[in-house]
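Hi R.,

Here's the chain you asked about this morning:
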Amino acid sequence: MVATAFLSPEFVDTLTDLKRRGYKIVVLYVGEAPRPDLAEGILVYELMKLLIDLQKESTLVSV
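And here is the predicted structure, written out as C-alpha cells:
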C-alpha cells in the first residue's frame, strides 16, 4: 500500500514492475493534479475530494 500526492514516471514504472512480479498494489492518491494512468490491476483510491469535503465539514482533525 502506498499513500502519495505525487506519482513520478519512475515511480509508476516501479509500481508496474511490482505488479508484474505478482505483488498486490494499492495506491491512496491524495494529489491535486490528475494522477497518471497505472497498470491494470493496481487498485487506486483517489482521496483528495474526500479530504476537501471533510475539511469543509470541519470533521478533519489536524495535529
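One quick note: The beta strands are 2-4, 26-29, 43-46.

Cheers,
M.
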